[in-house]
Structures are given as structure tokens and as C-alpha cells.
């Protein structure tokens, strides 16, 4: 018992996907493949960019940060989910639940801020190409990255700190396959008004504000591309931001559905599927999205470890 927090509940029961052994086996294989793809893919991105001087540019610097966040996000969720599916251990300790919430909020918030920084980088590259080297200097890039990690760790520290002040005296059944703040607050025996207010503030800042900043960047980008007369010029300009735009669309659509749309959590099954999209599918797809059509990455990969593309 955690007497310092007056917490009677020392562990929580997570709700799995299915009790059918065959379904659990299929899901286990799927999540193992997704996890391995995410770890190997993002690890390869980090290694390749680190070892390739030609990729030491602001865009790939931010991509390394994105890969680190994807590894953090998927590692926070999938190992525990696989344990539930393979060993049928559906419980998580109070401390483990807090740790999962901490790293999940940290990675999700940081990714939203980072996508905004990456959108700004693409805006400068396309709309201010002659001033790109001056504006996107290394001091600014490092400052943006440090701000992303620092702001989000402070945000998640506030959320988890507030949760530690709550009392949990039962029930202890979380209606999800992982610990997340909204689901956990429903089980609290203490008033959660401050927690809910802080969640709303965070959702507005990290979700709404950054979404509009990202969309504003792409509004200027689209307008600038449309002013290019040659078709080949438009194609080249669009190719520099198409991968990032695809990642933004995938990530924001799932996060908005989960956290911002009223009533989106009404269906537990739908909520689980959407959560899998941004905690497992997105981290696995991001390395593929950024490398399949990227000639610079392919060329760097051939130099580091020659393969036939």
C-alpha cells in the first residue's frame, strides 16, 4: 500500500483485446512484427543519419529526434501489451502505470511539437529557399529540439505529479490495454477537477495550437508551390514535404479522434484500434515513409551498407 499517497490500490487490471486464444495468438504475431519493425526501422534511421555527413542537415536532425520519440512511444506500450497477450498477465503495478503514463504523455506531446518544428523547417525550405541556411541555423535547430524535449517533460511531470496526489481505493479495472490519464482518472476516489483542467489545457496547446501552426505552414507551402510555373519544379517542391505531410496527417487524425473529438471514446473497441495506430503502426510506418522515396537516404544507405535497391 502506498500510504504517502493514501492509495489502497497497488495494481490495476488492464482490459485486453480478446479472450479467444486464436485471436490473441494472431494479435501477438502482429504486434511483435510491428514492434520489431519500429525498433529496427527507427534504429536504422538514427544510425544512418549519424554515420552519413551528407545527411547532417536540419531536416534529418529533426528526423533523428522523431525516430527517438517513436522508439520511446512504442516501447512504452507494446512490451506490456505483448506480455498480456503471450503470458496473459493483465495486471500492472501502480508504479508501472504511472511510468507508462509519464513516458506516453512525454512522447506524444513531444511528437506533436516536433512535427510543428519540422513543418516550419519545410516552410523555410520551400518559401524562403535563399535564406534557408541563415534561418535554419544549427543553434536554432538545437534550441528547437531542446525546447521540444524540455517543454514536454515538464508537462508530463505536472500530469503525473497531480495523479500521485489522488486516492485509488477501487475499482481497479482500466477499460483499456494500457494506462492513460483519462482512463485512470475515472477510477479515482478523489476529486479530479484540477487533473481534468490540466488535460484540457494540454490538449488545446499540444493538439489544437500546434495543429493550426502546422496547417498554417502548409498553407504557405501550398501557395508557394502553386506559384511555381514549371511542372517539374512543383513536383520537386512537393516531394520535399510530402513524406512529412503524410506523417502529420496519420498522426493528427488518430490523436484528434482519441483525445479531442467529443464522444470519440464511446466505443472502447474503436478507441483501442485508434490507440494502436499511433502507438504501434505509426512508429513502424514512419521510417518507411521517410526512406522509400528519399534518394538521399537510399544513397547514404548504399554507402554505409551497399545493397541493391
TrEMBL record:
Report the InterPro entries cross-referenced here: GPCR_Rhodpsn, GPCR_Rhodpsn_7TM, Olfact_rcpt, Olfactory_GPCR
GO MF annotation terms: G protein-coupled receptor activity; olfactory receptor activity
Q: Which UniProt keywords apply?
A: Cell membrane, G-protein coupled receptor, Membrane, Olfaction, Receptor, Sensory transduction, Transducer, Transmembrane, Transmembrane helix
**CDD domains recorded:** 7tmA_OR13-like
Q: Where are the transmembrane segments?
A: 25-48, 60-78, 98-120, 132-152, 204-226, 238-261, 273-292
Question: SUPFAM superfamilies in the record, alphabetically?
Answer: Family A G protein-coupled receptor-like (SSF81321)
Q: What superkingdom does the record give?
A: Eukaryota
Q: Where in the cell is it found?
A: Cell membrane
Q: Which residues form the signal peptide?
A: none
Matches recorded under Pfam families = 7tm_4
Q: How does it sit in the membrane?
A: Multi-pass membrane protein
- Which family is this sequence assigned to? Belongs to the G-protein coupled receptor 1 family.
PANTHER family per record: OLFACTORY RECEPTOR (PTHR26452)
Protein name according to UniProt: Olfactory receptor
Gene giving rise to this polypeptide:
LOC102838851
